[in-house]
Amino acid sequence: MKGAQFSYSMQGGPLMRVQASAAILLLVAFALFACQPVVEQAEVDASAAEEAALRKADAEWLKAFAAKDVEGMVSYYAEEASVFPPNAPIVSGQEAIRGMWEELTANPGFEVTWESVKVEMARSGDLAWVQETYVFRMQDAEGELQEDRGKAVVVWKKQPDGSWKAVADIFNSDLPLGDAAE
């Protein structure tokens, strides 16, 4: 093979260009995949455990409402919590929230129930929000039982002791204003 010259050229045939393109594409895909954050099973388990703890707190909170247990109701609000009732000013702080619920639960027809329809946890694991639908009943000034149906969002914050407390509780009616007032 005397006199044979070896020459390297990027000018290969169509098959060579397809193979080179495929190799480059695979390298890019591998690099992108390798850069994705890895979600550890422990993180998934912790998130599921936090959501379960939050759902349990929400269910216990509902029991306090069903029992008209104002202290139990208020115990699920953080000290700095605010409630945003419809057609009323913001109620902030546990003492003011206690006063609001004491007044409402004194109504003989008072009853509130809700169903959590969506729970979202922040990646940080210390905040969550729950979307709910509710039914609220109480007697009007004439003693007639009135019912309101609506939706709510409750923002929960994980406390230093690991418990969950509501920091923002907002609810509003699905009924037209005239129906809710009648």
Give average pLDDT, whole number: 84
Gross CATH architecture: Roll
Number of helices: 5
Give the ordered list of helices and strands.
HHHEEHEEEEH
Poorly predicted regions are: 4-10
- The portion of residues assigned to helices is 25-40%
- The top-level CATH class is Alpha Beta
What is the CA-CA span between the terminal residues?
A: 104 Å
Radius of gyration: 29 Å
How large a portion of the residues is in β-strands, by DSSP E?
Answer: 25-35%
Global geometry: elongated
Helix-strand category: alpha+beta
Looking across the biggest beta sheet, what order are the strands in?
2-1-6-5-4-3
Number of domains: 1
CATH topology name: Nuclear Transport Factor 2, Chain: A
Explain this structure:
The chain is of the alpha+beta class. The protein has helices at 14-34, 41-66, 70-74, 94-105, 177-181; strands spanning 77-84, 91-92, 111-121, 127-139, 145-158, 164-173. The protein has a six-stranded mixed sheet. The longest helix has 26 residues, at 41-66. Residues 4-10 have low confidence and may be disordered.
Write the layout of secondary structure elements.
Layout: H1 14-34, H2 41-66, H3 70-74, E1 77-84, E2 91-92, H4 94-105, E3 111-121, E4 127-139, E5 145-158, E6 164-173, H5 177-181
Parallel strand pairs: 1-6
Antiparallel strand pairs: 1-2, 3-4, 4-5, 5-6
Summarize the structure in short.
With 182 residues, the chain is α+β, with helices and mostly antiparallel strands. The protein is 38% helix and 32% strand.
